[in-house]
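Action item from last week, closing it out:
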Amino acid sequence: MVSLFEMRSPLFPPHPHAGFSVATYIFPESQIGFWNQDTLGNRNLIPPGAFHLTVAGAGVMHEETVTRSGRLALGLQIWIDHAAADREVTPAALHLPAADVPMIASDGVLRRVLLGTSAGLTSPIKAPLAARIVDIELQDGAVLEEPIPDGEAAFVVIRDGEVATAAGVADRGTAVFSNVDALRLTARGNVRLTLFGGPPLRQSVISAGPFVASSQSQARAFEARFRAGGMGRLTAFDQSELDRDFDQTR
C-alpha cells in the first residue's frame, strides 16, 4: 500500500502494527518532517529527505507526528508485506538520514535509493524483505530506463508531471506497472515519481486493521498480543512541546 500524505497537524497517534513493515519517506521539498517514536525505545527525527522503516514483525507500537503544527509535511507512507515465514521476525526501527541516502544523477535522471538497489547504488538499510524503493526526478525529455530483474515486479507512482509510456501518456496520481524486463518512461516536462519493486509473494493475505497476517488465527493472535500489552505501551508526544522546541531552533 502506498499513501501520499500532506499533513499540517498530528494524524498518526500511538498505534500497533504486526506482520509487515511500514516505511515513511519525507520528500526533500517538504517544509517540515516528522518525529517518530516506538516501543522499542527509539525516538527519531525524520527531516525532509530522510527515510524510516519500522519492521513491525511480531508486533510493535509507534507514533509519528509533524515537527511543527501548521507547517506542511509531504511524503509517502508505505506498507510492505513480509513473506509468510518472516511475518513474526523481531521488530526493529531502521533509519536512513537524508545525508546518507545514495544518490546518482545522469542524463537528466536523479535517483535517490531508499531501499534496495538501483543504477549500481544500494541503500545501507538492511531489512528482512527484498523490496526496493527509489525516488526519482526526471528533467524534460529525460528517459528513465530501469531494468527489472527476473523474478521481480515493479511499478512507479507519478507525483508530478507526465510521462510517455509504451501504452500512452500517464500523469500525476497514476501508477505505471512493468510487464517486461525494463521500465521505460520519457518525461514530458519535469517529473517526480517513485519506483517500487520486489518479488511477488503470491500468498494469502489477511488485512486486519493495523495487522497483516497469513491466516485469521494469526490475525487474532496479533490482536490478543496487543491487548495483553505484548507490543508495549506508548505515551503520545506532547505536540505543543514539539512546536515550542521547533520554534526555538529557528
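Closing note: The chain has two domains: 1-99, 101-199.
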